[in-house]
Design goal:
binds pyridoxal-5'-phosphate
């Protein structure tokens, strides 16, 4: 019997593997596997979400004006260059759909968001990976060495994932300066809100000055709204125009728009989350190093930890943590071997994680 068949390009895509969120027999595991914000969203965002329940029969505001204005105000940006979407995920997909054709090449830096590869493959494009190992950071020269006449888009994540390292301002400028004008540079800043390093560049100013740079941001991380699915892109007018042509009219839902507007305006909550994260990044780094574990220097809300050889390797550590009710994230095949990625949680969760790992390393 014959059945409808997906396009061959679709069957070359490996399905996304979600982080684990439950452990059998443990009612409330400590979940440090998906880089969510343990402090949750701003109370005013929760209030806005609840208030929306009275008007669920209405379509959302399709122009996303309130949220775009709120983002523009807080980040000192131009609201006309902002488009919101169903997670930054969706905006990355829209950009790739709008700019990448079958046979084109997309250069994805190794630790850019996996969905860039998925969407490029779905377009029938060839994905060329620019390695970030062994240094665990974006390698501008490795990207530039892979440029060809067919390259249409270059995707980087800064900070990257799962390492949490970033591309300093001067290197981002160097990368952009070396790209032809018709190659789009996609800067995924999902973790940009956490960065306190002074030589970090969000890329927003590159968007202001050029027609071939876009920056994606999310409310899923620092703003604690992962469950609502809301993100945004800062893009030059030509890209905004393309996205407006293909986005669905109500791609950002009403609850997400209302909550995100309050979330971004509550700069005191954002500062509190940033401060909690920076404090625990330091503690994680020093305590894990003290245990003899190698920690990649992270500026995001997670750390990537390298484990010693068997019997103290990452798989054994993961099993030990799970047995003690803690879910970390083993790095997927092809990523840095023998590493676990651990999200920074609440203070008591972090303490439990650190003491459990110490027990593991001592061979208890
Ligand atoms: C590097 C990176 N980019 C993008 C995303 C997607 O974020 P969103 O929830 O906005 O779709 C994630 C989510 O984990 C991520 O790690």
């Amino acid at each position: 019997m014959s059945a409808p068949r997906p396009r061959p390009a679709i069957l070359r895509i490996a399905p996304y593997r979600q982080g684990k969120s439950s452990l059998e027999g443990i009612a409330q595991p400590i979940k440090l596997s998906s880089n969510e914000s343990p402090l949750g969203p701003s109370p005013t965002a929760i209030e806005a979400y609840r208030a929306l329940s009275d008007t669920l029969f209405r379509y959302p505001e399709g122009n996303q004006r309130e949220l775009r204005n709120a983002i523009a105000k807080v980040f000192s940006l131009d609201a006309d260059k902002i488009v919101c979407g169903n997670g930054s995920d969706e905006l990355i997909q829209l950009v790739i759909r709008a700019y990448v054709e079958p046979g084109d090449e997309v250069i994805a830096s190794e630790f850019s968001f996996a969905m860039c590869t998925t969407h490029a493959l779905a377009q029938g494009a060839k994905v060329v990976i620019a390695p970030e190992q062994p240094a665990m950071r974006i390698d501008v020269d490795a990207i530039l060495a892979r440029l060809t006449a067919r390259t249409r888009l270059v995707a980087i994540a800064t900070p990257n994932n799962p390492c949490g390292t970033y591309l300093p301002f001067a290197e981002l400028e160097r990368l952009h300066a070396a790209l032809p004008d018709d190659v789009l540079l996609l800067v995924d800043g999902a973790y940009g809100d956490y960065v306190t390093a002074t030589d970090y560049s969000s890329g927003f100013d590159l968007v202001e000055r050029n027609d071939n740079v876009v920056v994606t941001r999310t409310f899923s991380k620092l703003y604690g709204l992962a469950g609502l699915r809301i993100g945004w892109i800062y893009a030059p007018p030509g890209v905004v125009d393309a996205l407006q042509r293909i986005r669905t009219p109500f791609n950002a839902n009403a609850a997400a728009l209302a909550a995100a507007t309050e979330a971004v305006l509550d700069t005191a909550h954002a500062a509190k989350v940033r401060e909690h994260n920076a404090r625990w990044l330091d503690i994680f780094t020093s305590e894990l190093s003290d245990m003899g574990l190698a920690v990649v220097p992270s500026v995001a809300n997670f750390v990537l930890v390298r484990f010693p050889a068997t019997p103290y390797d990452a798989a054994a550590a993961d099993a030990y943590l799970k047995a003690h009710g803690i879910i970390a994230r083993p790095v997927a095949a092809g990523g840095p071997e023998n590493h676990l990625r651990i999200t920074i949680g609440l203070g008591h969760e972090n303490r439990t994680l650190l003491s459990t790992l110490r027990e593991f390393i001592r061979g208890v």
